[in-house]
């Protein structure tokens, strides 16, 4: 019986059309798909652009309720075998849209999930965003972030040297994500909805320190 295809979801926080974040995400998703194919594993890649859900994400932040369309997108992300998260750098940090999306996720929803982080910006000076802004958030969510993060600056999209260097980083990160998917446990912990207990029950559960 053939193995089921792996699902890789690329989450892009780019705002423009076309978006360099989406372009980079597509390259990373394809690199991971190709690396899995080399190992005899079929994979499907789906792309999600957060700008299409910006209003729903903002409403979720305020109300604590995910509209059906946003809830469906979140379910698609959290049910994936691997996720690529890529967004632009704004004010020397991760974009607010990407951060807000991560904020509305259940804290357990990415537990053990293989994740590849990537970002785009005008200058390579912003590449530390990967390590100082994106990785800490995903570490809190207990995602299994692969070692190589990919940052693409304006220079990476033009010129023979820049493009080749970017292609090498993309290929390496794709291989790492494929290895993480191949070695991942078949099922991750469930992410059921959080239950709000009555205040009296919460008080009853408090035990004095011994």
UniProtKB/TrEMBL annotation:
It holds the Pfam family FMN_red. The keyword Flavoprotein applies. Residues 7-157 form the NADPH-dependent FMN reductase-like domain. GO terms for molecular function: oxidoreductase activity. InterPro entries: CE1759_FMN_reduct, Flavoprotein-like_sf, FMN_Rdtase-like_dom, NAD(P)H-dep_FMN_reductase. This is FMN reductase. Keywords: Flavoprotein, FMN, Oxidoreductase.
């Amino acid at each position: 019986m053939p193995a089921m295809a792996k699902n890789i979801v690329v989450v892009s926080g780019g705002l423009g059309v076309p978006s360099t974040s989406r372009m980079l995400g597509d390259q990373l998703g394809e690199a991971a798909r190709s690396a899995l194919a080399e190992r005899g594993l079929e994979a499907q890649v789906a792309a999600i652009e957060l700008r299409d859900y910006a209003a729903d994400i903002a409403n979720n932040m305020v109300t604590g309720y995910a509209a059906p369309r946003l809830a469906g997108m979140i379910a698609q992300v959290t049910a994936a075998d691997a996720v690529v998260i890529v967004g632009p750098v704004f004010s020397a940090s991760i974009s607010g849209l990407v951060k807000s999306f991560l904020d509305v996720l259940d804290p357990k929803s990415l537990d053990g999930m293989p994740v590849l982080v990537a970002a785009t910006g005008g200058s390579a000076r912003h590449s530390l965003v990967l390590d100082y802004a994106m990785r800490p958030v995903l570490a809190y969510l207990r995602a299994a972030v692969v070692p190589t993060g990919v940052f693409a600056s304006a220079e990476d999209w033009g010129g023979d040297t820049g493009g080749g260097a970017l292609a090498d980083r993309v290929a390496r990160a794709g291989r790492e994500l494929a290895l993480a998917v191949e070695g991942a446990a078949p099922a991750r912990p469930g992410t059921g909805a959080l239950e709000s207990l009555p205040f009296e029950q919460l008080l009853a559960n408090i035990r004095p320190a011994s």
